[in-house]
UniProtKB/TrEMBL annotation:
The lineage of its organism: Bacteria, Bacillati, Actinomycetota, Actinomycetes, Micrococcales. Keywords: Antibiotic resistance, Cell membrane, Membrane, Transmembrane, Transmembrane helix, Transport. Belongs to the ABC-2 integral membrane protein family. This is Transport permease protein. The chain crosses the membrane at residues 38-60, 80-104, 125-151, 163-182, 194-212, 246-272.
Length: 279
């Protein structure tokens, strides 16, 4: 673990901000090293979405694609690959939350977080290291899953600006999801519980427009699908990568990311203050 200086002069103004940044970078380095030394969780965040992608495209894609509006049944599988890819990207991002919740819970149960709190290190930086590390992991995972999609026939039409906007949105979503995962990891009473709680996030793209149009769902589920966070996120990916109409989806997607980030940050910091110091 990276050594952190135990004594510092009083932190005020820009000096305080510089310490926060320095501490966050230190914690980010720690989390990146942890990802490298224990790659199992990172590999699963890539393998899981790829398996789902291959199964839905090559097992169900022909039938599901033929049911999409305006699609020739003969080209159903190719059409469904284009349709489902944004949903797979959303699942990939959501899937990274499990690793964060698990590592945060391990730090809590092993007393590492309590140890950090006794040191001269910014409290926000302790958790920010997890968030920054997971955001980087999510971007890498999405890039690799996108590569698999291209290999099996996915053909995005995005311009360089649209690609930049896509990865900017990926970073925003990953940041938002990770703050929620940090809260889950700190709230969980065991590492096993922490590893299971983020599965709820992975289910949300299935209950939105990620895999089938929302208008094909029963009325109650359709209402939920249209107003939950992942539907505008998925539709924004479609608009950026494939040129479908964006409407208000991009605005809603960014707004959801901001709201979820604020909720996750406040929740995590409250739990950190209450639970990180143990008798």
């Amino acid at each position: 673990m990276t050594t952190i200086t135990a004594q510092r002069p009083p932190m005020q103004g820009t000096h305080h901000q510089s310490y926060v940044v320095t501490d966050a970078i230190t914690m980010l380095r720690r989390n990146l090293l942890h990802m490298i030394r224990y790659p199992g969780l990172s590999v699963f965040t890539i393998v899981g979405p790829v398996v789902i992608l291959l199964m839905f495209v090559f097992v169900f894609g022909g039938t599901l694609g033929a049911g999409l509006p305006g699609v020739d049944p003969a080209g159903g599988r190719e059409a469904y690959l284009a349709y489902v890819m944004p949903g797979i990207l959303a699942i990939t991002i959501a899937g990274t939350a499990g690793g964060t919740a698990t590592t945060v819970s391990m730090d809590m149960t092993e007393g590492i977080t309590a140890r950090f709190r006794t040191m001269a290190i910014s409290r926000a930086a302790v958790l920010a290291g997890h968030v920054l590390g997971n955001t980087i992991q999510a971007i890498i995972a999405v890039a690799l899953v996108l590569g698999v999609g291209v290999l099996i026939g996915f053909r995005p039409t995005a311009t360089p600006i649209e690609w930049l906007a896509t990865f900017g949105l990926i970073a925003l979503i990953a940041c938002a999801i990770t703050w929620i995962a940090v809260g889950m990891g700190m709230q969980a009473k065991s590492v096993e519980t922490a590893s299971n709680l983020p599965l709820l996030l992975v289910l949300l793209p299935f209950l939105g427009s990620g895999f089938v149009p929302t208008d094909s769902m029963p009325a109650g589920l359709q209402w939920f699908a249209e107003y939950q966070p992942f539907t505008p996120i998925v539709e924004t990916f479609r608009g950026l990568l494939l040129g479908t109409p964006l409407g208000w989806n991009a605005v809603l997607a960014v707004a959801w990311c901001v709201v979820i980030t604020v909720i996750g940050y406040v929740w995590s910091m409250v739990i950190y203050e209450r639970k990180s110091v143990r008798p």
